[in-house]
Amino acid sequence: MIQSIPYSLYLALSGILFTIGAIGAITRRNGIIVFMCIELMLNAVNIIFVASTGVTNTLDGAIFVFFVMTVAAAEAAIGLAIFVMLFRLKGTINIDEVNILKG
Amino acid sequence: MEAIIFKWAIFLFAAILAIFSSLMMVTRRNPIHSALWLVVTMLSIALIYFSFHVTFIAIAQVVVYAGAIMMLFVFVIMLIHLEKAIHSRHKLTLTKIIATVITCLLLVEILIGILAYRGLETRISEPITMAGVDNIRAMGTLLYGKYLFPFEVASILLLVGIIGAVVIAKRRQG
What we know:
Largest sheet of chain A: none
Number of strands of chain B: 0
Largest sheet of chain B: none
Distance between the termini of chain A: 64 Å
Number of strands of chain A: 0
Shape of chain A: elongated
Number of helices of chain A: 3
Strand content of chain B: under 5%
Order of helices and strands of chain A: HHH
Helix content of chain B: over 70%
Shape of chain B: extended
Oligomer: heterodimer
Order of helices and strands of chain B: HHHHHHH
Structural class of chain B: mainly alpha
Strand content of chain A: under 5%
């Protein structure tokens, strides 16, 4: 007899994806790839929100996913605009070389 | 019985595909390849959403993430030519290695916590009235009822995002 999928498996999947995203954001030097890793981390959290709709039997988790998507869209637009401006200013988007804010 | 096996198959397929493609996304050197692997990750996560019958969110995942946001990424990658970055060697400093090890330790801690916590033995119950059109109707009722104020704040946030992106990317005069 196979039982239905336990909730903890979704938590584990989310944790693994979040860790992959975090490691990417730490180790990569290309600014755009760092941004993509942040999007991956947001998606990993969304998995938990959606899985919680199956446990609580309400749709509140799905609504939160909707708001996270809104924030991610605004963040991607502004962040990529910053990278375009940075490339115009410095000629690179390598985040190890961008230290003009350093005192 | 067959339905449960089918759900397991869908979950395992989507989970393994998501982990594999996100690993590929992190390790590719060419940013365009990274973006395309991230699209695969988004689509497999949308598959998991479909298995929960949250149809609206699954479609929004495909349209907004795999469509709009990734299009923006690919567009900016094409705008910024990165040939130097592709050919530069990927060097790992000691700081980054230590940070990676600490992150992996935190993941192990989370996994131990998930497996040790007894309160999570609840199984995913089957949503009955939320499939198909009813899901979208329920989402709309919640968005324009209980969550009306956050919804309006989100629209203002998007407006600020649009104006901010235009102002930041505008070429300075003089």
